[in-house]
Amino acid sequence: FDRLQAEIAVAEQWFEVGSMLVSTESTIRYVSERRQFGKRLADFQTVQTAVAEMAVACEEAKASATLAALALDAATSDAQIRRAFAGGQLRLGRLCEQVASSAVQLHGGMGVSEELPIAAHYRQSIAFRSRNATAQSARKIMADAVIASGQFATSAIMGEFE
Prior knowledge:
The protein is mainly α. Helix content is 73%, strand content 5%. The protein contains 5 helices and 4 strands, in the order αββααααββ. It has helices at residues 3-33, 45-74, 78-106, 118-131, 135-149, and strands at residues 35-36, 39-40, 154-155, 159-160. The strands form 2 sheets. It has a two-stranded antiparallel sheet. Strand 1 (35-36) and strand 2 (39-40) form a beta hairpin. The longest helix has 31 residues, at 3-33. It starts with a helix and ends with a strand.
């Protein structure tokens, strides 16, 4: 994996963050307009909780993509390059799945229907995860990079391990 491939992977992470943000905004609009049992969906506490969790996941995804970009920018070795983008991939894989599945559920399962724009973001999430963010491959890249760097033998708090 070279620097250019890592930069492409980090750029895709940002693309997925954007898709997650649009999914969340679209879901907020949908639950604010849709009525069930004479009330807006947004008035139900479980819906509020789900939307809040989506928003938190988006913020975490932005932070993860930012850290990946900063780490990649500072990387000077192949191991650091691989570790920089793999950390973002691993985190974003879980987060985009959470946001995408919540969006589909809050759209009453219709999030996979071509009739709703949310379907494109759901498919984007699936594509991102299958291309870039499989947990197993990201974990392996992270583990190999940590072993190659020798950083597993030291701790910022505990010092050198014996």
